[in-house]
Amino acid sequence: MPQPLKRYFPILQWAKTYDRQILGADLMAAVIVTIMLIPQSLAYALLAGLPPEVGLYASILPLVAYAIFGTSRVLAVGPVAVVSLMTAAALGNLALQGTTEYLIAAITLAFMSGVMLTLMGLLRLGFLANFLSHPVIAGFITASGILIATSQLKHILGITAHGHTLPELLTSLMAHLPETNLYTVTLGATALAFLFWTRKGLKPFLLKLGVTPRLADVITKAGPVAAVAATTLSAYTFDLAEKGVAIVGTVPTGLPPLSAPSFSPDLWSQLFLAALLISIIGFVESVSVAQTLAAKRRQRIDPDQELIGLGTSNIASAISGGYPVTGGFARSVVNFDAGAQTPAAGAFTAIGIAGAALFLTPLLFFLPKATLAATIIVAVLSLVDLSILRHAWGYSRVDFAAVATTIALTLGLGVEVGVSAGVILSIALHLYKTSRPHVAEVGLVPGTQHFRNILRHKVKTAPHLVTLRIDESLYFANARFLEDYVYDRVVCDQPITDVVLMASAVNEIDMSALESLEAINSRLKELNIRLHFSEVKGPVMDRLKRSHFLDDLNGEIFLAQYDAWTKLSNSDTSQAA
Amino acid sequence: MPQPLKRYFPILQWAKTYDRQILGADLMAAVIVTIMLIPQSLAYALLAGLPPEVGLYASILPLVAYAIFGTSRVLAVGPVAVVSLMTAAALGNLALQGTTEYLIAAITLAFMSGVMLTLMGLLRLGFLANFLSHPVIAGFITASGILIATSQLKHILGITAHGHTLPELLTSLMAHLPETNLYTVTLGATALAFLFWTRKGLKPFLLKLGVTPRLADVITKAGPVAAVAATTLSAYTFDLAEKGVAIVGTVPTGLPPLSAPSFSPDLWSQLFLAALLISIIGFVESVSVAQTLAAKRRQRIDPDQELIGLGTSNIASAISGGYPVTGGFARSVVNFDAGAQTPAAGAFTAIGIAGAALFLTPLLFFLPKATLAATIIVAVLSLVDLSILRHAWGYSRVDFAAVATTIALTLGLGVEVGVSAGVILSIALHLYKTSRPHVAEVGLVPGTQHFRNILRHKVKTAPHLVTLRIDESLYFANARFLEDYVYDRVVCDQPITDVVLMASAVNEIDMSALESLEAINSRLKELNIRLHFSEVKGPVMDRLKRSHFLDDLNGEIFLAQYDAWTKLSNSDTSQAA
C-alpha cells in the first residue's frame, strides 16, 4: 500500500486486522456512548442556540468522517460544551436565534473551521497549537464552564436572560428573577439534584447493593437518559407546558438533510476570527484527550493527521445540517473505559444516533428544556477547576498572570477576547523573560571539572579571569542586554585580563546578537581584555564559522570550560608567583 | 544633590565641570553642525510635506530640550530623513499638503510621539526597542532610503508625482515624465553631481592641494551650503522661477511661533500607530548612534533616560511649530568628529539655527526645491545598503527572511506595514525556532568530564543509558515536542533502563513544560525506565522544588553530568560483567 494513502487514511491501517472480537468490543462501547450522547447532543445544541435536532445531526456524519481520517482509536467526536458556547458567542451578534440565518451561519462556521483545520493539517501546522500554553487552556476551560453553567440557569428558572459575559448574564438573570416559574424551577432543581447524585453517589450505592462494577458504570452513564425520560413523562402527564414549563416541542424526524454553507464574503469575514479560535481550541482540547488516552495503550497519534480528521468531521457536519464539533473529553474517556478498540466504535455510535433521529424524536416533544440545562450544568461544572490559580501562583508569577488574565477576560469580555488575550500574554511574557536573561558568574567546583554560580556554590575563581555563563539563547531581544552586562562587569573591576563567555546554554546566536558580540569584542580589545568562549554548541559554532567573527576574535574558543580554566587560570598563577 | 534629580536631569552632571576649554570645543562643533543643519532641516521639512521653516523650527527648541534631558554627549537631535518620510506617510492620508490641518497634524504627531517616548522612559520600557532586531532595522532603513530617494526625483525633474510606496511612486513618475522641465533637471542634476563629488572626491582633492585634514573636513561639510548658495544665486540671476523652476518662495522670518497640538480623539486614534512607530524607530536609530559614539569615549548612555530626552525634544518641537525629531546619524558623527564635548554644543547649534530663522530666511526665496531634493538624495543613498541581504543569507535563513520581508513590504506597501511586518515576523520566526528545539544525544569525551553530541564527537556511551541534552528552555511552545522526542527515542531501542535529561541549556521550565515532564516521568515509569536530570540550574531547581515534581520523580538529580555517568554507567558495567 502506498505510504501517503496510509498516512492520510488511517482507517486502512486498522481495518485490515479487524475481527469479530474487536467488533464486539466496539459495539459495546458504541451502545454506551450512544446512550450518553443523545441527551448531550440535544443539550449542547440548545447551548449553541440551535434547534435540538442540529445536535443529533452533528453526531452522525462527523463521527463517520473521523472514523476514516482520525488517528485516535478512542476519540469520541461530536458537539461539546466549550465549542457550543463559542458558537453561540460568534453567532449571537449576527442573527437572532431561531432564524434561518442563524442556522446557516452555524453551518458556515462548521465549514470554515473544517477547511481551516484540514488546511493546517495538510500544511503540517499542528505545532501552532503549542502556542496555547497549558495555563491559558486551563483558565479558559474553567472560565467557559462558569459562563456555560450561568447561561443555563435561565432554563432552570424558567425565565429569559441574555448575554455572553458573566456581568451581562448576571444582570439579566437578576432583572428577570421575579418572573421565575415555580413548576420549571421545581423540575429543574430536581433534575439537577438527581444528576449530581448519579454522578457522585449512585455508583457507590449500586456497588453496596452488590451490582458488578461494570454494570454499575453503565447504569451511572444512563443517569441523564433516565432524567430525560422521567421529566418528559411528568411534563406529559401533568401537562406542564400549559403551566409555563418550556418544552422542546416538535423535533423533525429523519436523517440529517443535505445542507450547504453560505459563501458570502461578508459572513466569512465576520466569522473568520471565531472560526479560527474554535478550530484551535477544539483541536487543542481534542488532541490532548487523544494523546492522554493513546499513551495509556502505548499507541501514537499524529497531530497533523488529527487536524485532517477533525477538519473533515467539521466539513461533514456542515454538509449534513450540523454545527462545529470536536473530540469531547468525558465522552472519549467513556468510550475508552467501555473498551472501544478502533474508530469503528464511532461509526457504530453514528448509526445509533441516526436511529434516534429516525425513531425517537416524537418522544422528545414533551422534554423540558430545564432537564437539558441540568445535564449541561452537571457536565460543565466538572470542567471548572479554580485550583489552577493556586498552582500557578505557587509555581510562577508569569504563569499565574496568564491564567488570571485569561479567566478574568473570558468571564468579563467573552470567550474570544479571553483566549486571544491569553495567547498574546503568554507570548509577550515569554519574550519579556528571555529579553532579560539570567547571567551567572561561575567558578570551578573543587575536585571536579564542573563550574557553578559563585553565589550559590563554593567554587574556585581567579582574580583576573571572569567567566560568565549566559543562561539564554542570544537573539535580538537580549543582544543589547548582554552588551551592557559584560561592559558593566569589566569596567568596575581593575585587574581583569580575560573574559570567558560560557555558552553551554546558548542555543542560538542570531545576526543581532552576533553584532553585539562583535561590539563586545572590539570594546574589550580597547581595554586590553581578551574575550574567550567555551562550550559553544555544534549548531551555533557552525553558524559562527560562516561569519567573520572568529577571525576578529581577540581570544580563543575552548571545547570545555575546564580547558579554558586550565589554560587561563594557570597563566595567572605563574604571573602571581 | 538628590539622586533622582541627577538621573532625570543629566545636565546637572556635566554642567558643574563646564569650563572655557570645553566651551571652545562645543562652539566649534556647533558652527559646523549649524552649517550642515540649515539645508538639511529645510530639505527634510520638504520631504515631510511641510513648509521649509518648520524644519528650522524643529531644529531649535528640541535641541535645547535634549541638552537638558539627554544622556549622550554628542547626539545631534533634529529632523531626520526616515522620520520625515514616516511623517509624510502618516499625514498623507489625513489632509492635503500645504493646508493648516496638515501642519496641525504634524505638530500633533510630534506631541503624541513625545508623550509616548517620555512615558516609556518613566516606565523604564527602553527594552521594548530590543524587539526591533538589527536585520529588521537595517532592512527598513535601506528600503526607506530607496523610497525617499525615489520620492525626491520629482523635484529633480520638475514634475508632480505622488505615492507612499515604490510602485505608486514609479507609476506616477512615469506618467508625468513627459512634463519634465529642462531648466529644473539641468539645475537638479548639476547639484546632484556636485554634492556626490563633494562627498567622495572633494576631500582627497583638497588634501592633494595641501589643505590640512581638519579644514578639508569643514569645507566638505559646507558642500550643501555651497550648492544652496550657488543655485539660489543662479535662480535669482537667470529668473529661473519664470522658466518653471520651483523655488522655495517666502519663508516667514522670526523665531518659532508658540503652537499647540490638536486634542481631537479622532485625530489621535488615526495617528496612534504612526506615532508609536515613529517613536520606536526614532528611538532605536538614535540610541544606537548614541551608544556607538559613547563607547568610543568610554562614556555610558542610559536608554531609559534617552527616551525621556527624545520625548521632551518632541514635546518641545510640538509647542514651537515643529514636527517629529530624533537623533540623526550623520549629524551626530559630524558633531563627534568636530569635537563636541557636552550637549551644550546642541544648544549652541540651536542658537545658530535661530539666527538663521531670524536673518537668513529672505535669502531663501529663490532657493530651488531641486537643490533641496539633491541634498536629500545624496544623504539618504548612504543609508541604502543592500549587502545586508547577502550577509543575512550567508548567516541564517531566518534572519534573511526577516530582512527580505521588511525590505519588500516597506517598498511595496509603505513604511508602517513594512516595519510592523518585520517586527512580527522576527518574533514569529524566533518562536517557531524555539518550538522545535535542538536535542542532542551526548556521550563522554574520553579523558575529560565533558559531554558532547555523539554525532559530532568521538565519545563513550553505555547501551542502557540515554543522555539527552536539551538545547532550549522548556516552555509552552516546545513542551509537547520534548514529550514526543523522548517517547520516540525510548520506544525504538530495547535495553534502555535510564534516561538522563542534561539541563545545562534549560534556562526556564514553565508550567506547561512541567506538566510535560510529569507526563514523560509517568510514561517512562510504566516502561520501567528511570528518568534523571543533570546540571539543572539554580533558578530552575528553585522553581521545581516548589512543585510536586521532585517527589514523584522516578530517578535522581545530579549536580554534574559526570556524576550521573559515573553512577549510572558503572552499574551497567557491573551488570554486563
Automatic annotation (TrEMBL), chains A, B:
Residues 455-554 form the STAS domain. This is Sulfate permease, SulP family. The lineage of its organism: Bacteria, Pseudomonadati, Pseudomonadota, Alphaproteobacteria, Rhodobacterales. Pfam families: STAS, Sulfate_transp. The keyword Transmembrane helix applies. Keywords: Membrane, Transmembrane, Transmembrane helix. InterPro entries: SLC26A/SulP_dom, SLC26A/SulP_fam, STAS_dom, STAS_dom_sf. The keyword Membrane applies. It is found in: Membrane. It comes from Shimia sagamensis. The chain crosses the membrane at residues 21-38, 44-69, 76-96, 102-123, 135-160, 180-197, 218-238, 271-295, 307-325, 345-365, 372-389, 401-429. It comes from the Bacteria. It is a multi-pass membrane protein. Gene3D superfamilies: STAS domain.
